[in-house]
Specification:
The complex is a heterodimer. Chain A is mainly beta. Chain A has 2 helices and 17 strands. Chain B is built from 1 helix and 3 strands. Classes of the chains: A mainly beta, B mainly beta.
Chain lengths: ~325, ~70
């Protein structure tokens, strides 16, 4: 609209309402990271021995045997509009409860807030049957040294079928007033079957937003979503060489590496894979903080060209 | 922190430097502990001494409960 055509300095009441604009112009509505199940730095298939699966999604079970996989929609499908990936949970032995959760950093931002979770789900496509009971709820965990967690808030049952359906649940979370907030507090969204039966369910396009209305899923690019995930977990190629060295054998050679985004806390590190090694017989992480790490390789010859490349994982999950 | 990690071993780690001993380069631990090397569910992790790190928080919970002992650095 040209500025010259604006001839009023006020807008009538209710001319612009939240439902008219929320899903059009308000970004950063979705508090869930990787709600479209597209980022999979750890891999695409997991068992109950794993703690985390697709990025940010944590396995939640008691004694069941369960498998979690990333699945792809058929191109052009319209059951879950715009979705490309979904997460499948298959529970093959009976127990108590099983499902997945996502821990959202902090408790203050949602203190006393009404929030709405929305997601697509179905069951019975993984060979184990539709869950008899399936529910969502939220927990507030006040962290190490903090108040006792407040769990099971807004527990809502959802009736799954073998077809995709959109489900919503609105919850008013407790206030943090009077609570002691310790280290690494979080708000946790849980999807769970509760009858301990063998069953399976699929979940796609998960969104948690402030307010009592579910708005359309907020799509973010893969790059944006990956950057958000990397605050909590990252897997990187680290490289030293090719350089001619004459320092002598058993000499450590270090190089510094910066994470692409500041991590939530100082991460744990683990060696994932050695890609290549020339005149270097080992590597290690000798320093790490939330901004980066030192990668050290050990020269195994008195002199010569050295080269080494490894994949390391850095974990600062909640 | 209710992570209930299955930790099978834990040992402090110090910074290392190379010293010449009997005409050979040898790694020697120096300085203060900066991490704990642990094996969790068969995977080796180097865990920083940061209370905000979930692995370290769980390690200290198990130490306080008498369920885990952290070996001194070599």
């Amino acid at each position: 609209m040209a500025l010259s055509t604006i001839n009023t300095n006020s807008i009538a009441d209710d001319a612009i309402t939240v439902p008219k604009v929320t899903d059009q112009v308000l970004t950063h509505r979705n508090l869930i990271i990787n709600g479209a199940m597209q980022v999979a730095q750890r891999g695409t298939s997991f068992t109950d021995a794993d703690t985390y699966s697709l990025d940010r999604w944590r396995l939640n079970q008691s004694s069941e045997t369960m498998a979690v996989t990333q699945q792809s929609f058929t191109a052009g499908q319209t059951d879950v509009p715009t979705a490309e990936k979904y997460l499948r949970v298959v529970i093959t032995t009976t127990g108590n409860f099983a499902g997945i959760t996502q821990r959202i950093e902090g408790v203050e931002q949602l203190s006393g807030q009404t929030v709405t979770v929305s997601f697509y789900a179905r069951g019975g496509q993984g060979g184990q049957g539709v869950p008899t009971t399936f529910r969502t709820y939220l927990n507030q965990n006040f962290g190490s040294g903090g108040s006792t967690a407040v769990t099971g808030q807004g527990s809502t049952n959802h009736t799954l079928t073998t077809s995709w359906q959109l489900f919503t649940a609105t919850v008013t979370l407790g206030s943090t007033s009077g609570k002691t907030i310790g280290t690494s507090s979080y708000t946790e969204l849980t999807f769970q079957q509760t009858t301990g039966e063998a069953c399976d369910f699929d979940i796609a396009l998960v969104q948690l937003e402030v307010g009592d209305t579910a708005t359309p899923f907020e799509h973010r690019s893969y790059g944006d979503e990956l950057a958000r995930c990397q605050r909590y977990y990252g897997k990187y190629y680290l490289h030293k060489g090719n350089e001619y060295m004459t320092h002598g054998s058993n000499i450590p050679l270090s190089s510094n590496f910066s994470f692409p985004t500041r991590m939530r806390a100082t991460p744990s590190s683990s060696h994932v894979q050695n890609i290549n090694a020339t005149n270097c017989n080992s590597s290690s992480i000798t320093f790490v903080d939330f901004d980066g790490a030192s990668y050290e390789v050990n020269m195994s010859v008195a002199s010569g060209t050295i080269s080494r490349r490894d994949i390391y994982a850095f974990d600062a999950e909640l | 922190m209710e992570n209930n990690l299955n930790i099978s071993s834990a040992q402090y780690v110090k910074q290392q430097e190379t010293q010449v001993i009997n005409d050979e380069n040898v790694y020697v631990s120096v300085g203060d502990n900066f991490a704990v090397d642990v094996v969790i569910d068969g995977e080796t992790l180097r865990v920083p001494l940061d209370p905000a790190n979930r692995h370290y928080a769980e390690i200290m919970c198990q130490v306080e409960a008498g369920e885990l002992t952290i070996e001194e650095a070599e």
